[in-house]
Amino acid sequence: MAVHNLEPTGFERVGDDALESKVLAPLYYTDPRAFEIEKRDVFQKAWLYACHENQVANAGDQLPVEAGGQPLVVLRDRDGEVRAFFNVCAHRGMTVVGKPTCANTLKCPYHGWVYDLSGRLVAARNTGHLDDFDGQGFALKEVRVARHQGLVFVNFDPEAPALADTIGPVFDDISDLGLDPARFHLGKVVDYPVETNWKIAIDNYVECYHCPVAHPGIEKFFEYEKTFADVQDWGVLAGGPPDTETLAVYKRACEANGWPLVAETRYSWAWPNIMYLLGWAPRPHLMVWTIEPVAHDRIVFRHNYFFYDVDPDAEQLAFIHAIDKVQQEDNPILEGVWQGMNSLGFGGQGTYVINDADTYQTERGVWQFHHRLQQIYDRAGM
Fold first, then answer.
1. What mean pLDDT, rounded, does the chain reach?
2. Beta carbons within 8 Å of 22's beta carbon, 6+ residues apart
3. Tell me, what CATH number does 201's domain have?
4. Which residues of the chain have pLDDT under 50?
5. How many domains are there within the chain?
6. pLDDT tens across 332-371, in order?
7. What is the pLDDT of residue 282?
8. DSSP state of 22
9. Amino acid 4: pLDDT
10. Is residue 89 part of a domain?
11. Range of the domain at 351
């Protein structure tokens, strides 16, 4: 799609007061220069979700993942530590691990260079006669890793604040609700390729102002007026209780099956692209969703579903289907907004609709997201 690159003049920057501020200018969505800034100053400096440690449960387990547009391999070494490396051979840049596996080494499928589980090069074919060849200089490049409640995160910036100091409140809330993500197993992953800018997907997620219009029937998951949205520097903690009848049914099921009672749902978002959904139906569950930017105009919206059982049963599959319906309603919206952003008819800037009661229908979380991005663009001179 052709993009009109608006000059960075003639628009208002996101202000410090959400009630008086205009929304983030279309320029920052449509101009590829903004995406280059985001790759460097957002995704290469933030904690990004990689996997659940149950996916690398045993020594030698190797899992190729992508985070922040970078190919990585997450593994468990011989000492039981979870580590991550760029999934790139030091010889010619080939992908080393192409699919989940378990082995004592990592072998590049191109020229056969071999690395141990610490990333050290231990074998390089036909290099013995090279006088200046030093294998120590060809190790896989390691990436910073942090684990919390069974979830594995990576960060490309060695100077970034600790994970607990940035999105720790999400984990505190999960614990307060009685769930332990470490007990969960990945049940299903669903990818949704969408032609849109990644920020449009976040904009849409951090408010439910659109829900009564765009998602008829979603009220069975929560009551709008009983929801809340606690907006913080690290993201948004949002959620609320289900309706009384549904909660009563769920309580009986928990008692009968020995499940922990999670009497509220959560729809939290943590900077920059991680969403945590947890709750009560059809049984305690955790969903970790990520927005994976492919380019400034394309994303993969990834749904990771975690249950106590490794394989989802019919009831859980029905739940996944219900969530899929909501996502299928959102995808045309995400693409429609992207088309509008690129239209010459959308030269202005809207305003934030702020709900003073701070229910999930407020757009205060959208403002917080935009305000943080605006500061990044300003520092970059855009």
1. 89
2. 11, 12, 14, 15, 349, 350, 351
3. 3.90.380.10
4. 1-8
5. 2
6. 999 999 999 999 888 778 899 987 666 778 899 999 999 9
7. 64
8. B
9. 39
10. yes
11. 27-44+168-380
Q: What is the edge-to-edge ordering of all strands in the sheet holding 151-155?
A: 48-52, 151-155, 142-148, 82-86, 70-76, 61-67, 101-102
Please check whether residues 193 and 116 belong to one and the same domain: no
CA end-to-end distance (rounded Å), the chain: 23
Long-range contacts of 78-83 (CB under 8 A, 24+ apart): 78/104, 78/117, 82/53, 82/56, 82/145, 82/147, 82/152, 83/117, 83/118, 83/119, 83/142, 83/145
Residues 232 and 332 in one domain: yes
CA distances from 123 to 28, 74, 111, 114, 120 (A): 47, 21, 11, 5, 9
> What are the b/e assignments for 318-353, b being 16+ CB within 10 Å?
ebbeebeeeeebbbebbeebbeebbeeeeeeeeebe
d(CA 230, CA 270): 12
Q: How far apart are CA 114 and CA 143, in angstroms?
A: 19
